[in-house]
Amino acid sequence: MLLEVQDINLTLDEQPILYELNLKVAEGHIHSILGVNGVGKSTLAYLLMGLQGLRPDKGRILFEGEDITQASITERARRGMTLAWQAPASFEGLTVRHYLDLSGSRARQNGKGEKIAQSLSMVGLAPEQYLDRFVDERLSGGERRRIELASVVNMQPRLAILDEPDSGIDFLSLEEITNVIRYMSLQGSAVLLITHREEMALMANQSSLMCAGQVIASGDPHTVAQYFRDHCDDCKHPNIPDLNGEINELQQGI
Amino acid sequence: MNYSKEFEAIAQAYELSGGDADLLKSDSVASLVVSGNEVLGKNEIPGVHMRSEKLAHGVRVWLDVDPGTVVENPIHLCFGVVPKEGLQEIISEYHIGDGAKVEFLSHCSFPNAVDVTHIMEATVHVGAGASMNYNEVHYHGPQGGVKTRPKTRAIVGPGGRFISGFKMIEGKVGELDIDFEADIGARGVGEFTTKAYGKGNDLVKVREVLYLKGEEARGLTKTNVVVVDRSRSDVYTEMHGLAPRTRGHMDCTEVVGDNAVAKNVPVVYVTDHTSKVTHEAAIGSVDRKQVETLMARGLDEDQAVDIVVEGLLR
Q1: How is chain B split into domains, by residue range?
Q2: What pTM was estimated for this model as a whole?
C-alpha cells in the first residue's frame, strides 16, 4: 500500500475535526474522497501533506510503509508526495516557466520530469501564451488552478493530493481535468482526489465517503456515489457522527 | 586622470549592477558615463541631445529628446564612484518633447563604498503625448557604506506617461532616502515602482507623491520592500485626486524578517467627487501558503523563502 492512514484524530481549537479516520491508497490508483462541504476533506489533505503545521493528536500516516506522521512538508515531497491547493497561492515576479521548472527539477534528478510546455498543454493552456506570464493576481482563478495542476504533473509524484481540482471549472473543462488525472495515473502516480462532485468521484478506482471527520466507507465509486446521492445531498445529520446503523448498512453494501 | 582606466573601472561596476558595458561604447545607443565628477563617455544619437557641466562633487546634466522622436534603444546612463569614499551629485534635467517616446536604463554602482554619498536630483518634463520610462538599478558593494538620496520632481503633460522604476536589491543598501513627486496632466499617467532589500542595519526610506491634476489622469505607486536583520523601512506614499475622473492606487508590500522594522503610511487626498483613489498595504512575514506550496514541490524552507522574496523584488 502506498499510503495508509491509521486511526487519525485531529483537534483544532478544541473542536474535533478528524476522528478515528482510516484510509488506504494503493500505488498508481485514483482514490476519490467524496463528501459535502465542511466534513474535513481539505483538512485531511493538508494533514497528509503536513501543511499549516497540522499534526494528528493520535494515529499514524504511513507512506510506503514508513511513518511520516511527523515529517516536514519538504521530506514528504522528497519522498514523492505533493498537493495542489483548491485556491493556489499567487507568486509575484515568478514566471509560469520558473514555477513549473521548480516542480520539475526534483523529478529530473530522479530521471523523470515532464517537459514544461507539455504539462501546460495538457491542462489546456497554450505554452506560448503562458510560459512568460507571472503566477500572480493577473491570472484568473481557473488559470491558476490549471497551472497548479500542470506543476503537479511536471513533478511526476508517487502520490498527488488534489484538493477540489474541479472547483470553479466549467463543465467542458472538466473533461480536460479528468484526462490529466487519468494520465497521471497511467504514468504511475497515485492520485488522492478530494471532491464534492460525485461525477468526479466516479473516475476513481476506489472511493471513500467522508462524513463528520470520518471515512465512513470505502469501496466501489459507483456504490459510494449512489449512497452520497441518496443521503448526503439532503443530510439529516450534517457532520454529526453516528449514523444510527446507516454506516454499517453502507459498509455491508460495499 | 587616466580616463581609459577609469572608464574600465566604472564599466566593470556597471556590469555588476546588471548593465551591458558594450552598449556604453555602441554608436547606435545613446549613453552617458559619469564617474565621480568626470564625464567619461557621452554618445548622442539623432533626436537626443546631452550637455553636461562639471561640479565640485558631481555633474549637471541636461538631456533633451526632440518632439516626436521615438528612441529605439534605451538610453544608458551609468553613474558611480569606484573609490571607497566620496560624494557624487548628479543634478539632471530631462525634457521629453511632445509625442516623443524614450526609455532610460540607469545603473548606479558603488562596488567598494565604505563612505559614499550619492545625490540625484532630477527635474523631469514629459511633453504632451510623450512617454518616458525610467528604470534605475543600484549596485552597492557588501560594505553598505552608501547614502543614496534620489529626488525627482516631474511634470507630465496632457496624455503623457512617466513610468519610473527604482531597484536596489543587490549588495547592501546602506541608507536610502527616496523623494519622488510628479504632477500628472489630463489623461496622463504617472507610476512609481520601488523595490528594495534591506539587510544588516540598512535604512530604506521612501516618499512618493502623485498629484493627479488633469482630468482622467491616472497614478500608481507600487512599493515592495523586504527588510531583514536589524534593517528598517519607512514608506510614505501620497496620492492626490484633484480633477474629474482621476484614478489612483497605492500598493505597498513590506516583508519583515528577524528584528527588522517596517512602516507604511498611505495618504489619500481627494477634492473631486468623481475621483477615486485606493490603497492597499500588507506588512508581515513571508506568506506561509506560498512557502508551503514550494516546499510541497520539494524545496526546503530557506530555498522557498528566497524564491518568494526574489519574486517580490524582481
Answers
A1: 5-287
A2: 0.81
